[in-house]
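Project outcomes to date are best conveyed with an example. Our students and postdoctoral researchers have been running inverse folding experiments weekly, and each run begins with a structure described purely in tokens. The record below, which covers 115 residues, was selected by the lab manager from last quarter's runs and is presented without edits.
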């Protein structure tokens, strides 16, 4: 769900530096300790790619958010455990991420609609 929150908030970041700061801060919060995990690296790289891609998506932001969530979760699972993509676990995670990102998007859109 952290990936869904980062993908959604990248559509509202003012510039690339703010988006990259959000990605790095969330990666630090997820893994606050010593050691290296491929999951955190994958999370950070996908988040950075989404920050860049969010500025160039030609669709409306809500549709772009949903499509970007699906692609980001698919890439995340493809890197970490490709065998889970065809399972019910992936479908449940994808559904939950879509619902959570839609709620976050609606909340952030409500906050930023006057600007």
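After processing, the design step wrote out the following sequence:
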């Amino acid at each position: 769900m952290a990936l869904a929150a980062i993908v959604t908030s990248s559509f509202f970041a003012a510039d690339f530096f703010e988006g990259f700061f959000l990605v790095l801060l969330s990666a630090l919060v997820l893994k606050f300790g010593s050691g290296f995990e491929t999951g955190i690296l994958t999370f950070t790289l996908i988040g950075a790619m989404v920050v860049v891609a969010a500025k160039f998506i030609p669709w409306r932001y809500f549709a772009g958010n949903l499509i970007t969530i699906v692609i980001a979760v698919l890439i995340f699972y493809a890197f970490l455990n490709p065998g889970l993509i065809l399972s019910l676990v992936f479908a449940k995670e994808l559904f939950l991420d879509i619902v959570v990102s839609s709620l976050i998007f609606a909340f952030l859109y409500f906050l930023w609609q006057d600007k």
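The mean pLDDT is 86. Residues 2-112 form one domain. The training component of this project remains on track.
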